Amino acid sequence: MNVLLAGLATLSGLRDRQAMDFTLVKLMLSTELWQFSSVKLLRAVGPLNDQHWLTLAQCTCSQAEPTHDQVWLDISALPTLSDFPKREAAIVTESVQRSLTAPFVTVFPINTQASVCSVLEVLSDQALSADLLPHIDSVLRLYENLQSLLDYGEKDSLTELLNRKTFDSAFWRAAQAQETIQMVPETERRQPNQEVSYFLAVIDIDHFKHVNDNFGHLIGDEVLLLLARQMRASFRFHDQLYRFGGEEFVVLMRCSSHADAQAALERFRTHIAEHDFPQVNHITISIGFTPLNLNDTPSGAFDRADKAVYYAKEHGRNQVCSYTELVASGALQAPADDTEEVDFF
Predict the structure, then answer these.
(1) Which of 11, 79, 254, 260 is deepest in the core (most CB within 10 A)?
(2) Which entry of 247, 274, 325, 340 is annotated as an active-site residue?
(3) Is 247 a catalytic residue?
(4) What does the pLDDT look like over 88-134, one tens digit per residue?
(5) Rounded to the nearest 10 degrees, what angle do helices 217-234 and 208-215 cross at?
C-alpha cells in the first residue's frame, strides 16, 4: 500500500501527459496489491469509422522504463480496433472486460476528453479477484481527473482546441525532433529521398468582423466552434491544433515535404470555402505557413507564418501563402538574421 500511495502522490504532481502515462503503467507494475506481468495504456485514434490502437505507454516486469508508439507515425500501420475485441468492447460498453483463461487479460476503460477513448490492458498469470477491481478503478479515476485538469488548463474554453500557453512547449519538442531528424544520415533514413519536416501554419478567418457585426457575437462564436470542428476532422490526429485568440488559429504539423504541407492546407482552405455555416452560409480563410528552421524559436516561426497570412489577406484573401516562396519571389523581405537559417523541405 505504501508503494501505491507514493506512486499516486508522484502521479498527482505531474503536468506532462507522457510522464503521467509512463508513471501510471510503472505504478501498476510496482504495487504490492497485485501482480501483473505487463501493462499497456492505449488510445483509439483516427476517424470514428477507421480507428487504430496507439500505445501511449507499455511496460513489462523485465523492463526498466516504459516505451510508447511515436505519435507522428502512420496510423494505418497500427492495429485496428477490431483486432483486439476486448479493448473494443471496453470502449463500446464502458465496462471492464476479462478473459476466462490464462494468461489472463483484463481491460479497463478510461474516460478522457469527455468520452471513453483509452484503455488500460493488464496481463496476469492469475485472474484478478473481484475485491481488487475497485482499487484499480480508483487509481484510474484519479488518472482521469488529472487528465481533465490538464485539459482545463491547456484547452480553449470555446473550441476545445489547445490554447496559446501550451504552444511553446510543443514547439520546442517539434524543434528538437526536427534537429534529430536532420542528424540522421540520409543513407539510414527509411525514405532517403524524403526529408520530413515540421511546419507552422496560421489560419485567419476573412472578414470575421463582418460576421460579428451582421449576425451577432453568438453566431460569431458558433462559426469559431464549427471551424475548430472542421480542423479536427481535416487534419491528422497528431497535428497540433490551437486557437490563439479571436479568429486566429494555428497548426503545428509534420509533413514529408513543403509541397505536401501546402497541399494539406490548400485542401482545408477549399473545404472551408465550400462548407455551409448556419445563417452565415459561407466564409473563407487565409493561411500563411513556414517550415521550422534550424535554431528556430516559437516567436520567430509564428512571425514568419503571420507575415505570410497578412500577405494573403492583403492580396485577395481566401488563399494559402508560403513564407518561403514569398521570400524567394521577392514579395517579402527576410530579416537579416533569417538568412543564416536553413529551411528543411
Answers:
(1) 254
(2) 247
(3) yes
(4) 999 999 999 999 898 999 999 998 655 668 999 999 999 999 999 99
(5) 140
